[in-house]
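Hi, here's the filled form for the chain we discussed.

Project: internal
Contact: R.S.
Residues: 163
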Amino acid sequence: MRGRPAPERTVIIDGKPLPEVLDEAMIRAVVHGFYDRIREDPLLGPVFNSRIAADDWPCHLQRMCDFWSATLLRTARYQGRPLPPHLAIPEIEERHFRRWLQLFAETVEAICPKEVASLFLDRAMRIAHSFRLAIGFHRGEDTTGLCPIGYADLARQSGGAKP
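And the returned structure, exactly as it came back:
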């Protein structure tokens, strides 16, 4: 028995339909634009460039595109575990996460419409906090007072505001 094709499912994020303008091309632009900034950044560049060989960057960028596609578009492209590699970086500190989020905010604000930039940044802030907690726990630190990095914290650093 043949019926009509199943309707495409609507992706719901935070109780709202995913903006139609967000697609794989926008994710690719964000990922590539962000990591271009990372690689040149005086604080973050050395951390990334010491762990990702020049020849391995295309693979890393594709993995990050897959990650964001899975995170926002609900595709099944990313099957990895993003936390373990970060646990292995002994020099990672609060200032690295703040700078990471600042560069990410600047990138999504430059590339995406406001609602999409907010969606990206909200997810990035949640990921950063989760990673900060896990790294602290892994190091045996007391994380009970660790507060999430918020929009106001980024605004103080860059002069920007919530996207």
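Let me know if anything looks off before we file it.
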